[in-house]
Amino acid sequence: MSQAIAVDRKAWILLLLLSLVWGSSFILIKKALVVLHPVELACMRISISSLAFLPILLLNFKKVDLSKWPLFLVVGLAGSGIPAFLYAFAQQQVSSSMAGLLNSLTPIFTFILGILIFNDSFRLLKSIGVLVGFLGAALLVVMDKKAGFGGDLAAVMMIVFGTFCYGLSVNTVEHKLKGTGPLVISAASFFMIGPPAMIYLLSQGTIPAVLERPEAWKSLGAILILSLLGTVTASILFYGLVQRTSAVFGSTVAYLMPVMALAWGFVDGEAILFYHLIGLALILTGVYLIKKM
Q1: What was the pLDDT predicted at 7?
Q2: Number of other residues whose CB lies within 10 A of the CB of residue 215
Q3: Which of 12, 26, 115, 272 has the greatest number of C-beta atoms within 10 Å?
Q4: Is 181 helix (H, G, I), strand (E, B) or coil?
Q5: Rounded to 5 degrees, what are φ and ψ at 177?
Q6: d(CA 84, CA 78)
């Protein structure tokens, strides 16, 4: 009995750590953008993560099915590459709090794409969840625009499209890469998208140029933490959590991550208003209905 309680306690600790790490990604992007251009930020994030995953790839290279490289490319682009650019550009206009709230649309797009592309079964309750979630997102966008906090619609739609990409990546892993270990998937997918990002940084002389800017080390520190914690460590924590418990328990991070993002935004002086909480509640209600069996 005591062992079961200990395991349960460890699972909750892992869940809270993962929520904190992923929920901190948006404020770190905000801090990195003080000095870095969005393209520089995205390429650095991808490059650092790729280099960190390289040892894992080399140690597990025999487990990589090279015939599945198109799938690894899809996972790399949709799960990391494209969103890295979208969120970096969007957060020039959208607060880190709003980015974190809208990011909770990911499970909703995962459900929609599962039906439209991957032939998942249609369920009425889950469909209601989609409508409720989008209602919450619409409330956030409309009210934030009226209050003058939301930035332009194009920036908001970048984040929405980013969650669409995440949904495509999750479905690809679940339906097409079931026989491949999750860490191998992450390492192989970053191997597919890492080299172009590195080539860009080297060809443009980005690092020396950035180091000449005021407060460069603060932004570089933020992107380093974002890459090593928000991408690499978060992947290890998540897969460890799923192995210790279940995919259902691990997916509850979708409820806590936007709360963490909201808290970080508040600490950083961003305005948190009542409609933010209402919108968050609607989105998470939609996520709950979608995940409810």
Answers
A1: 46
A2: 10
A3: 26
A4: coil
A5: -125, 35
A6: 10
Q: Which of 159, 135, 185, 138 is nearest to 25 (CA)?
A: 159
Contact 99, 90 (CB under 8 A): yes
Which single residue is written with the structure tokens 């499970």? 107
| Blockwise average pLDDT, block size 10, the chain, 293 residues | 52 84 92 95 96 93 91 94 96 90 85 86 82 86 63 86 91 84 89 96 92 89 92 79 63 76 88 84 84 64
Residue among 174, 74, 76 nearest 118 (CA): 174
- Residue pointed to by tokens 């198109």: 70
**Residue environment code for 54-67, b if the CB has 16+ CB neighbours within 10 A, otherwise e:** eebbeeeeeebeee
Closest to 254 measured CA to CA, from 150, 42, 109: 109
Q: Are 146 and 89 in contact (CB under 8 A)?
A: no
What is the pLDDT at residue 258? 84
Q: How far is CA 37 from CA 24, 191, 207, in A?
A: 20, 23, 12
Q: Which two three-digit tokens encode residue 238? A: 């998540």
pLDDT of residue 42: 96
